[in-house]
Amino acid sequence: MGGSPSFPREPLSPEKVVIVTGGNTGIGYETAKWIAMMGAHVIIACRTKERALHAITRMEADFEQEKQKGTSGLTSGELSVEFMELDLSSLKSTQKFIEEFKASGKPLHVLICNAGLGMHPLTYTEDGNELMFQVMQMYSLNQRINQSNVTVNSLHPGVVHSEFTRSFEDDCTWTCTYNCAKCFGVSISPYKGAITSIDVAVNSKHSGVRDVYFDKCAPASPSPEATNVENQEQLWKFSLDCLKDYITEEDLNNLGAKT
Ligand SMILES: NC(=O)c1ccc[n+]([C@@H]2O[C@H](COP(=O)([O-])OP(=O)(O)OC[C@H]3O[C@@H](n4cnc5c(N)ncnc54)[C@H](OP(=O)(O)O)[C@@H]3O)[C@@H](O)[C@H]2O)c1
């Protein structure tokens, strides 16, 4: 019973295409690396080319080390990771990314929306939105696509010592809290923080599962704020309004409708 959270270390098809946003560091790096090491094709969607290419080089070195250790479940092929540029704080960049990905003709099996910030000082994007305002809209999205074979889930990675604290380096309370968590062994490594993301993405026992909030690879109860339907709908409508200059009226209407 119980035990540490884990994901199945089993080779994945090279035909499987997985996008990991923010795959160049922290939880996203480990998520992208392990999924690629098991054989899928991984696209790391990152805002800085240099950091992304450096991450790919590190992943290749880590892969060699894991092979030498005899780690199970690794692909016998090459590591298949590519970089595509995506700055989620710019709708223009996001649209360009989507168009480039569609033009590549690749299928998309899993999208891991990992990129994010924590406790960032109030900042506005070029589109006039608050910077940390992000797509946390699992329930609203599922209600609109529940007749399709696309499933959406969300998760909590744990308290992870990654580069997450850089946004609030000037905030003594938060920095001290994170540093204490690290000293007392409360926080976990980026690899451990990535385990739930990897499991939800690759474990066949989760296929067809939707609308679930995962914690330590198991379904968990989200906060009441997250399950408040009125708030979900308000956020969804606001988000669609932000996108009105970027998507067609027909798509907007389709996204607005619940199935
Ligand atoms: N660490 C925790 O304790 C914790 C707890 C709960 C939830 N989370 C969530 O877990 C996710 C990963 O966090 P982490 O701990 O791995 O943090 P991290 O080490 O700071 O990594 C964040 C990643 O997001 C990318 N990113 C930030 N803004 C972006 C933008 N505008 N466009 C594209 N990419 C952007 C960063 O890119 P650059 O490297 O170029 O900046 C980086 O790759 C985040 O969504 C975070 O909210 C973390």
From TrEMBL:
PANTHER family: PHOSPHATIDYLINOSITOL-GLYCAN BIOSYNTHESIS CLASS F PROTEIN, PHOSPHATIDYLINOSITOL-GLYCAN BIOSYNTHESIS CLASS F PROTEIN-RELATED. InterPro entries: NAD(P)-bd_dom_sf, SDR_fam. The keyword Oxidoreductase applies. GO terms for molecular function: oxidoreductase activity. Pfam families: adh_short (PF00106). The keyword Oxidoreductase applies. This is WW domain-containing oxidoreductase. It comes from the Eukaryota.
